[in-house]
Design goal:
homodimer, alpha/beta, Rossmann fold, 2 domains, 9 helices, 49% helix, globular
Chain lengths: 229, 229
């Protein structure tokens, strides 16, 4: 699976969040980091469309400005996503995935009915969901980062892993898919340093656990079947 | 009441809808028609903010591009609506109204759960509603125009009146407010042509009807009170 990350940020160099996210993807394969140039007056439509076609998972990545992406992403949409390409004869994005990576300096608790912002991020991002729908794309659950600057080190480490999976794991939405992804990551690391006892131990632990987990999964599904009857 | 219409349309000259809307406002007082220049790299923030402060009802008027306004309106939002001005110390927009005039070439029937577009316009325009909420503004029900090119002459005449009221009538959301607005419009027209028998007749008819309507209103409210008990 190839992923295209379309980064829309008018002050990219100043953004600690974007720098962190970019660093998280070091050594990740099949990922294209594509920054939208805010200084250009227009986009090269053919080049942008070709880039989209080469990838399977498309990510819009941006800080939330007035409950939406910065203007440059909208300009890109307005220019690049023309009717024929998206839902006319071509339908060039059909069967691809659309993901949103959105960061905001406002706290998560505000994004709820009755909260400071009144609406959830899922509601505010509807225009992207509607675009995915029109294009025949699969809309992924948005990946949101609230108040990055206040995250603890542990929370940041967790963010790295979650983000890596959102970008590179075709099956990040189920437990088994996440497990396989971890195993795959460990194997790659082991290939780099085959003598690491620690990595070998973790890999063995995951593989041992899997058998236990599969058994547990069976038991749970039997209990559930009983309850459903 | 002073109304500022912020028109965001990258191909304004080609737009029959926008031309029609502008013509509808000929002779309307206290209305500023403000077109966002898509060729400029940046907005004059101080001038735009001063303009906003001079008006009571702010209208974002645009064609729906990818379920949102064209990029130029977002650019205007990102540059002009800075934190202090909107919800910091200034709160310069508080108590003002925010209205949306949105046109689309897609049919109304698609904007519903299960329809082609999957979401209603009310849902898709949430980012503007959230902005109004944050700014302490009153959010007006969006004014939507579907498939303008296919409207009948009668529908267009109705559109003129509805649009005029959305822009200039402080009380367009209740029957009494609409009635007073019509009376006011007729009186202005009569001042221009005092000998018009037709206008005098219509005005008299409205005034006569009002007494009947007020009586009817009483009766209806009594019936409702009975039902509620």
């Amino acid at each position: 699976m190839k992923t295209l990350i379309i980064v829309a940020h008018p002050k990219l160099i100043e953004s600690g969040t974007q720098k962190f996210l970019k660093t998280s993807l070091t050594k990740m394969e099949d990922v294209t980091w594509h920054v939208l140039d805010v200084t250009q007056p227009h986009f090269d439509v053919a080049a942008e469309q070709a880039l989209l076609q080469k990838h399977d998972r498309i990510i819009f990545q941006f800080p939330l400005y007035w409950y939406s992406a910065p203007a440059v992403l909208k300009q890109w949409e307005d220019e690049v996503l023309n009717r024929n390409f998206v839902y006319g004869t071509q339908r060039a994005l059909a069967k691809k995935e659309l993901g949103i990576v959105v960061s905001t300096g406002d706290p998560q608790r505000g994004f709820v009915a009755g909260g400071d912002e009144q609406f959830t991020l899922s509601e505010l991002l509807r225009p992207y969901q509607a675009l995915a729908n029109k294009a025949g794309m699969t809309y992924l659950p948005p990946f949101s980062i609230f108040q990055f600057a206040y995250l603890t080190e542990t929370a940041k480490q967790r963010l790295v892993i979650d983000y890596q999976q959102y970008i590179t794991n075709a099956e990040f939405q189920n437990f088994h898919g996440r497990e396989l992804w971890f195993e795959d990551q460990l194997k790659q690391k082991l290939a780099d340093s085959p003598d690491s006892q620690k990595l070998t131990q973790i890999l063995t632990a995951i593989q041992d656990n899997r058998e236990d987990l599969e058994e547990l999964g069976w038991t749970l599904s039997m209990i559930k079947d009983d309850e459903d009857e």
